[in-house]
User: Which sequence fits this backbone?
């Protein structure tokens, strides 16, 4: 995955901890970057594709296995996969005839942590 | 929050644990419901509004305090707030002249948990 894609999620590539939604108001730049990732998730076909990829034992899926699950053309599926990739949620590699996709769990975990309410620093704070 | 809004997040109202993205492929119904919530998050203005509401000490914010942060009309802000409410992420109440908004952290936590990779059942499994 490129550094550019990582930055789409509003995090540095160092994996450092991130602001949570409920910590403080987002500035415009943070909101624009995070909105790109959530927009990529905001489509049923893309969510199904991502869950098919992320839940695959072994970690990667041939595009030839994804397309038959949908009543959509190959170019349409490829377009949705491209949007997921541009959002930094999956990556891919061409091998011979087919392209193989895998999820980037770090990116999903960071988005998940962003949505989850921060735990108070002290147990009773 | 209405039961209908809770169901937008693809969960029952009982707060029971939910399928994670990486557990198994989503079916069409689950994907359609979850996509609505992520689509609501997929806009920078809505993300900023939601973070302003969710991070507010005391838990609620008057719409009169939200609008001045944006160079957008009151009806536009109200439309974005309506979409967040329809997605089950916030709720509101009118008191006199103004409407007051608060976040629904349970809904955000469930979406966050959905994105976060499931932990193996055994520590080293």
Assistant:
């Amino acid at each position: 995955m490129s550094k550019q894609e990582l930055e789409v999620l509003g995090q540095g590539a160092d994996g450092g901890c991130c602001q949570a939604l409920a910590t403080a108001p987002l500035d415009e730049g943070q909101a624009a970057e995070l909105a790109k990732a959530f927009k990529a998730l905001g489509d049923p076909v893309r969510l199904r594709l991502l869950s098919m990829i992320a839940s695959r034992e072994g970690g990667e899926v041939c595009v030839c296995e994804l397309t038959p699950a949908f009543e959509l053309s190959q170019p349409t599926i490829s377009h949705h996969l491209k949007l997921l990739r541009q959002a930094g949620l999956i990556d891919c590699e061409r091998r011979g005839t087919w392209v193989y996709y895998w999820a980037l769990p770090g990116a999903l975990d960071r988005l998940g942590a962003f949505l989850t309410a921060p735990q108070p620093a002290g147990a009773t704070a």
